[in-house]
Amino acid sequence: MPLAIRIFLVYVLFVGLTGYFVLNTVMEEIRPGVRQSTEETLVDTANLMAEILRDDFKAGTLNQNRWPELLKAYGERQPGASIWGLAKNQVNHRIYVTDAKGVVVLDSSARAVGQDYSRWNDVYLTLRGEYGARSTRSDPDDASSSVMHVGAPIRDNGQIIGVVTVAKPNSSLQPYVDRTERRLLGYGAGLIGLGLLFGAALSWWLSVALRRLTAYAQAVSEGRRAELPHYRGGELEQLAVAVEHMRTQLEGKAYVERYVHTLTHELKSPLAAIRGAAELLQDEMPATQRQRFVSNIDSESARMQQLIERLLNLAQVEQRQTLEERVQVPLAALVDELLETQQARIERKQLRIEKHIAADLALSGEAFLLRQALANLLENALDFTPSHGVLRFRAQRRGEQVEFSLFNQADPIPDYALGRLSERFYSLPRPDSGRKSTGLGLNFVEEVVKLHGGTLRVGNVPDGVEVTLHLP
């Protein structure tokens, strides 16, 4: 199972359990909380009524005054109130008064007058000077029919002479409880959903970051170029830097070893020629022969210098993973500049130059490397083009890329060599001198093209050879 999915599942489990316990705890506290608030209001109401009814109760005139009619009118009122979006169209309080023996003497519902309520806790405990309250079901089989009763004492000179009880059915509170629970569940589900989305986004981001690092490590292990992923701070940036440092250390060591072996191998031939010529020059010989050996030393020294310089340039390009800059390089102007540097060779061979490049066509990349690559192509083409031959430059846009081609009139490349032309140190004899080059030119061009995200193709065409580059 991918690491991101495992992290997300752990996150889901944590958020789910936390959300469940928090919501469950809060939900369990809603109903008791609402009832506690209601009970506190009933206490205030009962004590208020005890003070209001005290004088009439002590005088024994409760039923003779207007209290029965007032309580009946109270029970028939329709408030028409809207409480937090919930309509309230009837009053729900029931008020009854009992004497010192617990007998009901006044009842707003007019159904319990004369009954003995002395055994009910709201009356029994209040008459004993304690807090009297009870919750009783109107229907024993219906849990939702419970009614809260709160009693308050009627006192005469500190003596309890009666009890006022205020009752309220819990069913009248249920709409508010249900509404609160629905809102809480909605908010809770929304927060859990947002938490899961955040967890999914975090897991996805972490997965993408790790995949980028993995892809980079795989590319490096396969010898392919890849750009180091960049992260801002944290452990991922430290990991990326550590991976890049490890790559640099490992590649650097292997790269140096490979190039030392290559350089020593390639330098053996010119060094042997120089040493042989130097030994022969120590003896007496005709001036013409001496001049020939001096020329050999000079040409072999130049060959060694060219080999070292090209190896250094190639090493610099091969070690790089990305471009140091990316600018617009006008292609037509670059070709004109390169042709001007080779004007002497072009005139000496009396070559015909054809150029089909729009003036506004530009390459996107590192100017120095692009110039070096095209210079190598031109130099290679000049080596194989016979006198009075043709060099043809073409370039055109193809989507997001530029297709650049250089044709030179020449003999076709042998089939056995076509697949090895960009191979390091592989070279064909030059027609003019019969000697081979360093074999690093096309290899350098290929590395530069790859660094720019392009492709190189060399092939035979009618009357000559054509090199095609696809570049940004």
UniProtKB/TrEMBL annotation:
InterPro entries, A to Z: HAMP_dom, HATPase_C_sf, HATPase_dom, His_kinase_dom, HisK_dim/P_dom, HisK_dim/P_sf, Sensor-like_sf, TCS_sensor_his_kinase
Any single Gene Ontology cellular-component annotation: membrane
Enzyme class: transferase
Entry's Gene Ontology molecular function annotations: phosphorelay sensor kinase activity
Pfam families documented for this protein: HAMP (PF00672), HATPase_c (PF02518), HisKA (PF00512)
Keywords noted in UniProt: Kinase, Membrane, Phosphoprotein, Transferase, Transmembrane, Transmembrane helix, Two-component regulatory system
Chain segments annotated as transmembrane: 6-27, 184-206
SUPFAM superfamilies cross-referenced by the UniProt entry: ATPase domain of HSP90 chaperone/DNA topoisomerase II/histidine kinase, Homodimeric domain of signal transducing histidine kinase, Sensory domain-like
Compartment(s) of residence: Membrane
EC number: 2.7.13.3
Domain Histidine kinase intervals: 262-472
Ranges where the HAMP domain occurs: 204-255
Catalyzed reaction equations: ATP + protein L-histidine = ADP + protein N-phospho-L-histidine
The protein's name in its UniProt record: histidine kinase
Organism per entry: Pseudomonas kielensis
